[in-house]
Design the sequence.
C-alpha cells in the first residue's frame, strides 16, 4: 500500500519554463490537496479538490493550475515558473466526511522545486 | 481567515525530558490535527483531535475547543522525536471549511 505518491521528487527549472507535478493516492480518498512549504513557515494551501470533478482555490493559487484527473490523481501545473515558486510541494489526501469535516490528512513525501 | 499560533517556536530538550507544545486558534473549528515533520521532510499525522484527549504511546494531545487551544505532550523524549510539530485546523465558517490551515510549527531538538 503506497499511500500518496508524488513525482518528481526533485526538479530544477529556469524562469519561464513549465512543468507538472503528479500526485496519486491509493487509499480511495475523495479529497486531495496541494500545499507549498517555504523555509520557516508552515504549509500553505494552493488548491484542493473536495471530490472528483471539483477544484477550489486555496490561500496561494496565483501562478498555478490543477487537474483532478480521476479519483486517484491530482496534478499541479506551473505554466511559467518564477523564482518565487521555489519551494517544497506536498500533495495530501483524505476522506471528506459530509460537506465540511476534513478527515485525517495523509501526505506524500514532497517535491523540491528550484526555479533559477 | 483563521489564525493559528504555535508556541514555543523552538525547543531544545535533553533526551528523557518531557515537553508541552501549544496551539492557539482564533475561531471555531471543525477539527484539529497534529503532525510531525521529521528531519528528512516527511509529514506524519500524529492525532486527529477536534476535542478531548487522546494518547498514543509517549505522545498525548488535548483539545479544548471552547477555549480555542490544543496541547501536545511528549514524555520521555527520544532523539527520534526531533523535527517540526505542526498544528492544523479546519475553520467552521462556510467560506473556509474543507481545508486545513497550518500553524508555523514548533522546531524540537532532542539532544542525546
Sequence:
Amino acid at each position: 500500500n503506497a499511500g500518496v505518491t508524488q513525482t518528481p521528487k526533485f526538479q530544477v527549472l529556469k524562469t519561464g519554463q513549465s512543468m507538472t507535478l503528479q500526485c496519486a493516492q491509493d487509499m480511495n480518498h475523495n479529497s486531495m490537496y496541494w500545499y507549498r512549504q517555504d523555509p520557516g513557515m508552515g504549509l500553505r494551501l494552493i488548491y484542493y479538490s473536495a471530490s472528483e470533478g471539483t477544484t477550489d482555490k486555496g490561500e496561494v493559487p496565483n501562478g498555478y493550475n490543477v487537474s483532478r484527473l480521476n479519483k486517484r490523481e491530482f496534478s499541479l501545473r506551473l505554466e511559467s515558473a518564477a523564482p518565487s515558486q521555489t519551494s517544497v510541494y506536498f500533495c495530501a489526501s483524505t476522506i471528506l466526511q459530509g460537506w465540511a469535516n476534513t478527515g485525517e490528512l495523509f501526505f506524500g513525501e514532497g517535491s523540491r522545486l528550484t526555479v533559477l | 481567515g483563521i489564525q493559528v499560533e504555535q508556541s514555543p517556536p523552538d525547543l531544545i530538550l535533553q533526551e528523557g525530558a518531557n515537553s508541552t507544545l501549544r496551539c492557539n486558534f482564533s475561531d471555531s473549528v471543525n477539527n484539529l490535527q497534529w503532525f510531525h515533520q521529521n528531519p528528512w521532510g516527511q509529514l506524519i499525522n500524529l492525532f486527529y483531535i477536534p476535542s478531548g484527549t487522546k494518547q498514543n504511546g509517549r505522545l498525548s494531545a488535548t483539545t479544548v475547543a471552547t477555549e480555542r487551544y490544543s496541547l501536545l505532550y511528549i514524555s520521555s523524549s527520544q532523539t527520534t522525536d526531533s523535527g517540526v510539530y505542526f498544528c492544523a485546523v479546519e475553520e467552521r465558517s462556510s467560506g473556509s471549511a474543507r481545508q486545513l490551515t497550518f500553524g508555523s510549527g514548533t522546531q524540537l531538538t532532542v539532544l542525546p
User: Anything to note?
Assistant: Chain A touches chain B through 28 residues (CB under 8 Å). Chain A has no helices and eleven strands. The CA atoms of residues 87 and 115 of chain A lie 9 Å apart. The first strand of chain A starts at residue 4 and ends at 7.
